[in-house]
Amino acid sequence: MNLFMRASARAHRIGGWLERRFAFDSRRNVIVAALAAMGVAALVSLLRGQDSNWDLRNYHLYNAYAWLTDRIALDLAPAQMQTYFPPLIDLPYFLLAPRWPMATAALLGAWHGLAFVLVSGIAWLALAGRTDRARLAPVLGLAGCLSAVFLSELGNTMGDDTTAPLVLAALLLMLWKAASGRASTWAPWLAGVLLGLALALKLTNAIYAIALGLAVLAGPGPWKRRIAHAASLTTATVAMFALLAGPWMWRMWRTFGNPLFPQFNAWFQAPLAQPLSVADQRFLPHGIAEAVLRPLSSTADPFLISEIPMPQLVWASLYLLLVGGLCIWVVRRMHGAQPTAFDDDGNGSARMVLVFLGAAFAIWLGMFSIHRYLAVAEMLGPLAIWLLARRLLPSRWGARVAGLAIAGCVAAVLAGMWVIGWKGWGHSGWHDTAFRVEAPVMEQPSRASVLLVGDEPHSWRVPFLPPEAMYASVASNFPESPAYAQTLAQRVAQRGGPVYALMVAHVDIERERRQRKLERAESSNAWAARFGLDRGDCKLMVRLAKNRRVDLARVGTAEGVRCRLVLPPEPADTGLAALDAAAVVAAQEKLARYGFALVPDSCRRHEAFVGAEPFPYQWCKVAAVAP
Questions:
Q1: FRET pair for 292, CA 20 to 30 Å: which of 348, 374, 517, 590?
Q2: pLDDT of res. 4
């Protein structure tokens, strides 16, 4: 009993120390919390390894390279449909990562970690009137950052976490403006600048731009003032977006006839692409019933809204809380109970947060229904659970239900990450050079054409291949029209030089594991030799050999007998050549649709790496086929 009381007292003292140090009751604590969050996020980004996600290999690297070297008129969709996305967001990574991969990852992680203090600030404003908001705000901010999307993209280049601080800062400014009630009008303009920057960097942030405008209209104060603030916000957003993304969209309009090429081509009818509205419709719900139940169904089956499983409970919790809470609220109103207010001091911040979140989710559901685009909304999920529970449930139950729901949401995400792994969208081991490509021999590169075959991400290799050649995708995810194949044939004929095909090569997983094990063994040998642990009975080396399931050999040297960790003999061939040959056959069928054929026995395998992970490719000669 005494032991339990001492443990409880110690836990109370630790909790009190944490509250004094990290509660948002002073500017110093806010700064310390922000720096701590950014530092932890940077460390986690480094621990996860080199970013190697599909989008990075498909277009993030190539798009920045193509913009800087003006390849728009030379190449033809080498990064598939995503070739023509605005490249501004990709420039910093392209300029920094190839030379300083680890420093770039740390900087990216630190920037993502800034979201913690912004979510906490939003919670602090939305909890106006509560005496404990200085303690609750960082807790809800931490819970928001322990969301599925944020953790899965922490430190990577996919852009949702990267633009999230800009959207959150815009929301925070508008909440502060509503809460302060001051006459100054600079806040809506600055919020619009941040929102326009987020939109120019990643077009999917349009859902948050619309949602924030609706939230401002739902804020406190007279309609005239709310409309004025919404107008200022919208004007600044459009102006900033036009300034940053306008030149690129104008270039797309002049080159292809569609400023958003190839998306929304049903409106613009650009000749090279099919007349489709949104290219990626894989995750959109079919029918109203499926849309209404999507928060529940996507929780049960994460693959309904994502290519990788990202377990979460926040949307199901909000859905059930809203439905159940509304039923309780109706019953209470029928019995004459008075409704509680969203904000004790009437500043409208809680209402604005809930309108922002609800509008963003509804727009997302109709436009994309892709989980990772909900990064910002999902970070605000725990705060929304707290606000709804306190509003819709009886006062004695609201805090308990909200606390349990938020704890369950965090536990589900962490358990899912533990089971599935922290690699998320793709990470590899670190290497001094982020990207390495073994370049093939290319005859007459100034006249050559290279066909990137299939929907695998090939274009990340282009910056490391001869820049004089033309690179074009075939049989990719680009929504090709008949004019696409005609344009490709014309460009190849005009260049008049050799034609090559670049296609996938398979990786021997067991061989790669063996290579990593060999690298660890060589590292252990080097450290053992440095400290003289490889001599005599070699007790530590024997233990390492047993733990790492490798052999121990005694090698004679000029200085005597030394112990070394060695690998057992390499197993027999796993059929890698047969897999590559099958890929060649598949590529032959795809190229035939464009009037090309692979030259027999011309394919050669070349190595390429993202960090320490191999992404080899095959390089083949191509000949035109007579019609």
A1: 348
A2: 42
344 lies in the same domain as 493: no
Cβ-proximal residues to 447 (8 Å cutoff; 6+ apart), any chain: 495, 496, 497, 498
Structure-model confidence comparison of residues 417 and 234, the more confident one = 234
Query: Would you say 58 and 215 are in contact if contact means Cβ atoms under 8 Å apart?
Result: no
How many domains is the chain built from? 3
Core vs surface per residue 255-287: b (16+ CB within 10 A) or e: ebebbbbbbbbeebebebbeeeeebeeebbbee
The answer as to whether 606 is a domain residue is: yes
Q: Is residue 409 part of a domain?
A: yes
Q: Calculate helix-pair angle for 223-256, 186-201, nearest 10 degrees.
A: 30
DSSP characters for 176-233?
HHHHH--S--HHHHHHHHHHHHHHHH-GGGHHHHHHHHHHHHTSSS-HHHHHHHHHHH
Q: How far is CA 582 from CA 362, 559, 606, 614, 624, in A?
A: 44, 51, 17, 20, 21
**297, burial (CB in 10 Å: exposed 0-12, middle 13-18, buried 19+):** middle
Q: What's the rounded Cα separation, in Å, for the pair 133 and 120?
A: 10
Residue 534, domain extent: 524-566
Output the pLDDT for position 373: 96
The DSSP secondary structure of 424-468, one letter per residue, reads TT-EE---SSSEEE-PPP-SSTTT-EEEEESSS--GGGGGGS-TT
What is the rounded distance in angstroms from the CA atom of residue 423 to the CA atom of residue 420?
Answer: 8
Together in a domain, 473 and 612:
yes
Are 441 and 490 part of one and the same domain?
yes
Q: What percentage of the chain has pLDDT greater than the value 70?
A: 88
Looking at this protein, which amino acid is placed at residue 377? A
First to last CA, the chain: 90
Specify if 89 maps to a domain: no
Name the one residue in this structure whose structure tokens are 């509680």: 340
- Could you tell me which residue, 313 or 562, shows the higher pLDDT? 313
pLDDT digits (tens, 9 = 90+) for 470-522: 999 999 999 999 999 999 999 999 999 999 999 999 886 666 667 777 777 88
> What SS3 class is residue 553?
strand
Strand partners of residue 596:
624
Q: Which of 420, 448, 472 is the last residue of a domain?
A: 420
